[in-house]
Amino acid sequence: MTLGLMAQMQVNLSINHTLSGASFALNQTDQNDLMQDFEYTRVQYYINGITLIHDGGQQLALNDSIIFFVDAASSGETTEYLGIHLITALEGIKFHVGVDSSLNHTDPSIWPAGHPLAPKLPAMNWGWASGNRFVAIEGNAGMNLSTTFQVHALEDWNYFENTIMFATPKYASYSFINIDADYTEAIRGLNVAAGIIEHGGANEAVTVLENFRDHVFSEANWPTSLAEVEKESIKVYPNPSNGLVHIDLSQGAHTLILRNAQGQLLSKMPIMSQGLELNIETSGLYFIEVQHKNGNSVLQKVVIR
Q1: Cis upstream peptide for 238 (omega within 30°)
Q2: How far apart are CA 68 and CA 62, in angstroms?
């Protein structure tokens, strides 16, 4: 396939946070593969160094400045914008858990508030020499969950790459890469009931990062593009519009999400009727997503003049 046949595709990455397949929550008791009871009190990590695999195995490396700080406890899923790219069929993704060496040793104070590498509480930065914690997991384990464990994994040499290929290529002008993250797998093979405390780049820290590379992430079995979920129609009109947009649905009780052309979330609201109006004051391209109760979504573009 030649570049001339490709089209602009907006790509987003969604990570669904789970614990043994159930929705993730802190202080939720589970068992690891050693049949040890445990609960997490912290699961945080970075994603950086992303490459999109598309159109017959071509690879598009994204700028290393695209970096995400993931806090599994902040919401049921983390969704991040990966940009608009010249792609027809999206076939897979590569990414690293951690921070590329070109960014890993920067001073957190140089980054504006809200940037992934800006100071965090609890801290993710270990200091100039070693850089950032790639993964920070903490919790309790063992009999009556009475033993504390901590693994803070870091160091440039542990910057491992994940590769996830999709069972079916994704064709759409607006696509989500949906990934399940099962954090039970993060402590696979670890005797957390013994009270592991490992802060650094060796021993259990390496095991945790290898588990993130090999076991934590998998392709999610849920819709990833407009073509897969367009089982229910919505009408968005007029389009283009001078600002006032009407939305008609075949059913009510949904959630409406409004994003700008860069994929940034502008508004999220419940819909209890089969129609509503939006007043968008700034001209540009927008994406209106109507999310069903079962997790499926229908997407529409709208142009505001």
Answers
A1: yes
A2: 13
Task: Return the pLDDT at 167.
Answer: 87
Which helix or strand (DSSP H or E) is residue 153 part of? strand 147-153
- Give the 3-state secondary structure of residue 110: helix
* Of residues 64 and 207, more confidently modeled: 207
Question: Per the structure block, which two tokens stand in for 241?
Answer: 């519009």
User: Is the separation of the CB atoms in 192 and 149 below 8 Å?
Assistant: yes
- pTM value? 0.75
Question: How many C-alpha atoms does 160 have within 13 Å on its Cβ side?
Answer: 21
3-class DSSP state of 292: coil
pLDDT band at residue 302 under the 50/70/90 scheme: confident
Query: Are 44 and 125 within 8 A, CB to CB?
Result: no
Where does residue 205 rank: exposed (0-12), middle (13-18), buried (19+ CB within 10 A)?
Answer: buried
Closest CA to 80 of 153, 16, 169: 16
Residue 228 has pLDDT above 60, yes or no: no
Residue type, 91: E
Residue among 292, 194, 216 nearest 249 (CA): 292
100 close to 72: Cβ distance less than 8 angstroms: no
Q: Which residue has the tokens 């508004």?
A: 267
Residue 169 CB burial class (10 angstroms; 0-12, 13-18, ≥19):
middle
Residue with tokens 């573009």: 301
pLDDT of 197 strictly over 90: yes
Instruction: Give pLDDT, residue 230.
Output: 46
3-12, 179-188, 230-239, 253-262 — most confident range = 179-188
- List C-alpha distances in Å: 214 to 35, 97, 211: 20, 11, 5
Q: What's the whole-number mean pLDDT along residues 46-55?
A: 97
